[in-house]
């Protein structure tokens, strides 16, 4: 029997990966994307994302370990940079890092404790004052190049891409699905919703918050100096946890941002405005902790997060509708893996991971 035809709603990272994997497996695929094939209005644009194994939950460490070889594989088959192994550090008070080490122990992931002196000698651009947990397999993925490659490969396998096609509604029947976009109706055997923060409107999911965050790029003082990916887990003078700072080398300099914070926005009506207070906080952080960067060179940008980092992803199928959403600020490292998980659900060859089901989210939200 021929593989079922599939409409993919949303051509960001997850939709491009799902479309690519489905098309490779022989499904007729149609992708409907409300904006351009690549655009800066969702969560998947830019030149850098951290690919790390360090999570405080062994489940996500294992998931990241499963996803990690895909990046080497994708890089091996392409000339442009999609992934660069840099190694990664988490640093800060030892008690904040212990849960990450314990989870990596439980999952069998490689890591090493370094002293602040050892870490400073390896990466002179960062200042270390407490414990340092080093993961050699971490690195940096390049979103713009990754999406371009996935979309190119999907189209080479026959996927049809319809940019500037905003889906208004999805109807399922015993015969198939019909997807309405303005005055057009597309039909197929199944539909996949990978619409990022917009997914809940289309797939009947619990409402998701859209949060505009504002990382910035800085120019390194020494262009030859090595940079790992880093997450700085911090406390204030009273021992209360502060928002983590993160950073990573990218073709545009070194990107630095804070986890948490940001402002709630309507994803269809964003102002993309830079918040001066956050700019000042980033500059102050760089001045204090990153001697290898010039704080005066700050170049801010905005991006959209969906959901909370604490929530699990949603990758589930109900009848003819498969959804992959809720990836928040840490989904990119799983992009190739999510494409395979979606394709397995569409084919009916795998059961959804229980933590990623819609019903699991309904009981926790
Ligand atoms: C600043 C920032 C830093 C990040 N850093 C990291 C990191 O270091 N490591 C990491 O692993 N992850 C990171 N992430 C998270 C990661 O980038 C996201 O989880 C991932 O890109 C989400 O992809 P997506 O396809 O689900 O969503 P999106 O990229 O938003 O794609 C959804 C697509 O659906 C389209 N769409 C929506 N509604 C409709 C409709 N009705 N009709 C048609 N199309 C529609 C949208 O236009 C969009 O193109 C970061 C995210 C941000 C914003």
Please specify the SSE layout and strand pairing.
Layout: E1 6-9, H1 13-24, E2 29-32, E3 49-51, H2 58-76, E4 83-85, E5 88-92, H3 94-107, E6 112-114, H4 116-122, E7 131-135, E8 139-141, H5 143-156, E9 160-162, E10 169-172, E11 177-181, E12 184-188, E13 190-193, H6 199-203, E14 210-213, E15 216-220, E16 229-235, E17 241-250, E18 253-258, E19 263-264, H7 276-289, E20 293-300, E21 303-306, E22 314-318, E23 321-325, H8 335-347, H9 358-364
Helix pairs in contact: 1-5, 1-8, 2-3
Residues 9-15, 32-35, 42-44, 49-50, 166-167, 194-196, 198, 202, 213, 215, 303-305, 327-333 line the site of flavin-adenine dinucleotide.
Query: Ends: how far apart?
Result: 40 Å
Total count of helical runs of at least 4 residues: 9
CATH topology label of the largest domain = D-Amino Acid Oxidase, Chain A, domain 2
CATH superfamily of the largest domain: D-Amino Acid Oxidase, subunit A, domain 2
**Percentage beta strand:** 25-35%
Low-confidence stretches: none
Descriptors for this entry?
365 residues; alpha+beta; FAD/NAD(P)-binding domain; D-Amino Acid Oxidase, Chain A, domain 2; eight-stranded mixed β-sheet; six-stranded mixed β-sheet; globular; binds flavin-adenine dinucleotide
Describe the structure.
This protein is an alpha+beta fold. The chain has two domains: 158 residues, FAD/NAD(P)-binding domain; 162 residues, D-Amino Acid Oxidase, Chain A, domain 2 (2-Layer Sandwich), CATH 3.30.9. It has nine helices and 23 strands. The strands form five sheets. An eight-stranded mixed beta sheet has the order 6-7-5-16-17-18-15-20, sandwiched between helices. A six-stranded mixed beta sheet has the order 9-2-1-13-23-22. Strands 3-8-4 form a three-stranded antiparallel beta sheet, covered by helices on one side. Helix 2 crosses helix 3. The longest helix is centred in the N-terminal third of the chain and has 19 residues. The two termini are 40 Å apart. The mean pLDDT is 94. The site of flavin-adenine dinucleotide has 35 residues, from helix 1, strand 3 and strand 21. Flavin-adenine dinucleotide binds next to helix 1, strand 3 and strand 21.
